Amino acid sequence: MKIAPLMEAFTASGQFESVLVHTGQHYDERMSELFFRQLGIPEPDINLEVGSGGHGAQTGEVMKRFEPVVEQRKPDWVIVVGDVNSTIACALVATKLGVRVAHVEAGLRSYDRTMPEEINRVLTDAISDLLLASEPGAVENLRREGIDGARVQFVGNVMIDTLLKHRARADQSRILEEIGVAPGRYVVVTLHRPSNVDRREALGELLAAFERIAAETHVVFPMHPRTRRNLEQFGFGPRVERLARLKITEPLGYLDYLKLMSASSAVLTDSGGVQEETTILGVPCLTLRPTTERPITITHGTNRLVPVGPGGFPSQEAVVGSLRTALTDRRGAGLHPPMWDGRAAERIAQCLLKA
Amino acid sequence: MSVEGVTTPIRLVTVVGARPQFVKAGAVSRAIAAHNAAPAPRSIIEKIVHTGQHYDANMSDVFFQELGLPAPAYHLGVGSGSHGAQTGAMLAGIERVLLDERPDWVLVYGDTNSTLAGALAASKLGIPVAHVEAGLRSFNRRMAEEINRVLTDRVSTRRYCPTRRAVANLAAEGMHDGVVQCGDVMYDSVLHHAARASAKSRVLERCGVAPREYVLATVHRAENTDDGERLGAIMAALAQADVPVILPLHPRTRARLGEGAASGGSLRLIDPVGYLDMLALERHARAIISDSGGVQKEAYFFRVPCVTTRPETEWVELVEAGWNRLVDADRLRVREGIAWALDFSPPTAGDGLYGDGRAAERIVADLAAA
Q1: What ipTM was reported for this prediction?
Q2: pLDDT above 90 covers what percent of chain B?
């Protein structure tokens, strides 16, 4: 979702020769292929096929496999995106080989070091030559870390480029009919973070919240494989099956997902990207995490953090209460963060040409 | 943590892999032993992981023995390789160990790939990292070591700085928490071993040199050994010195030199030496020519002038105080540097730049209290 507009901007400028490397970190073939096809991203030139593993093992494997690619292709830049293990692994390899690194989505901070993503972000920024920030707060975070301002550029949000480009096409999606819900009459849930789905008490409490919500409205839950596995393992299968108004789906393609979110009355999520997308869609977003690294979605958008209890997850009362508030006050709808205008990738291409 | 008066020990995993790290870890291991021998609220159990980054088995074993370091509980046997491949293999290996051990802390030293791999693997598992020799900066991003330092400091919970400058460097990067100026563990180590080195070592006799009548040289950094022009300039300058130059040769440099690895002019190549022999050579040298960070400091500990064959140094206070001169790898400048060092008059300033020899003790006390 973040790469597509970049590849397009590089092609449009006619001044780049780009090689797309897929590390294979997201091993779910269905997810990857759907995304590539729907977004019109060219097939990756190189697939490293790293697969899943512990953080250390996976990061290590990406490093080992990416290094020969850089040595062979000798690029002027390696561009990394976001905050996954592949991001730091590829940035580190490139830096050690003396190849310049540009980090798209630089400077985001949750200030929660227990999140592996936070470590990836902090480290990638520390070694990148060009830091491309999606919101002003990110620029400030980097300044506080003593990173030379000359390396930092505020360019906007590439994921919003993708969203704006595909929004009209997403409207044609028949996903609401397929699932059997009506516009504005359901909420969407996405969950994948270990703090929410890997512990029985956390997942059980959130499920209790969804049960209460499902008593009043439909709940659509496109389910990450990890969440599905844990639901079964914790013995929550029967509880889920009893809920007539809870609709569990496979992970959806991008266009269906966009349509599903945009026609919903609210989204409950622990994903970073969804906080941004709902802000542009003007749909209330409840973030089931104690912190966000994207605070602009709160100050200039529809996002709100659901207060988290001592266990590190929100209580069902907190979830239900926050949803009620969000549905009535409609805070942030119609606001747009600066530079989230669909032209971030274009600006990034310009920065690279000037750097 | 107390159960009927029994307290849980603090479990520590130390990750080492390169020669200087054995020296530094040795100082801390001794301090841990002292801590455990004294009545302390919590004892410390240390397990050592040797990544195998310095692959010369002979070199590593000698070092462990001489330093009295506990034998490694784990040997990952990673060996040499490109940065990505080596760091990648270490990450996977260290992660396995940490998943088994589940320590309270991971302790890393200095700025090698082993340092970074240990810090990264631990931080991803949510295990707090303590970095000894935190805050050093050359501000040269082309050095792999600089990248390792910057990244390791970022993920560390406790950052043990040898100097005031190191503390200031961290502050400039927004790191204020967990920063402890404790002095330099290498100074601890030199104080501990210097007397023994002089008593035991026969290295001067073996080399056929007398105290104060030779120059000691080392070349090991990749930017010097992997660049034929730079290495050639350094070697040429050494061969033209007015006094004998003893050069223990790192395996990588010898490989690099190939046929050229022969003594000539004033230059005498010797095999790599153990830590005690090295201390003896440093202590009695008239001057030292080096690109090693550790050797620059050891020169100062023995009050021997040092000429550094790099454009910059992390140990800027040595240059500022007049104990060290940066000459890069330029033949003429190296020769001028040697002349300066042979005609050296010690500066009056610059005592105690690296603490009082009790850095390891402070580190252990801090870890025990953290």
Answers
A1: 0.88
A2: 75
Topology adopted by domain B191-342:
Rossmann fold (3.40.50)
Residue B61 has pLDDT above 60, yes or no: yes
| Neighbouring C-beta atoms of residue B356, cutoff 10 Å | 13
Structural domains in chain A, CATH included, are 3-156+339-354 (3.40.50.2000), 167-329 (3.40.50.2000)
Q: Determine phi and psi for B326, rounding to 5 degrees.
A: -90, 125
Cβ–Cβ < 8 Å for B8, B1: yes
β strands within A46-199, DSSP E: 46-47, 77-81, 100-106, 130-133, 152-154, 186-190
Interface contact A60-B83, CB threshold 8 A: no
Report residue A174 as tokens.
Answer: 């028949």
Active site residue A192: yes
Residue B236 burial class via C-beta count within 10 angstroms: exposed 0-12, middle 13-18, buried 19 and up: middle
CB B283 within 8 A of CB B198: yes
pLDDT (0 to 100) of residue A30: 55
Three-class SS of residue A76? coil
End-to-end CA distance of chain B: 14
B249 φ/ψ sector (left φ>0, alpha ψ -120 to 50, else beta): beta
CATH of B10-184+355-369, one of 3.40.50.2000, 3.30.70.600, 3.40.50.620, 3.40.630.30: 3.40.50.2000
Candidates A23, A62, A92, A143, partner chain B, best to mutate (most B CBs within 10 A): A92
Predicted confidence (pLDDT) at residue A188 exceeds the cutoff of 60: yes
How far is the C-alpha of B248 from the C-alpha of B285, rounded, in Å?
A: 13
A93 touches chain B (CB under 8 A): yes
| Closest approach of B172 to chain A, Cα-based (Å) | 6
Q: Do A127 and B89 touch (CB under 8 A)?
A: no
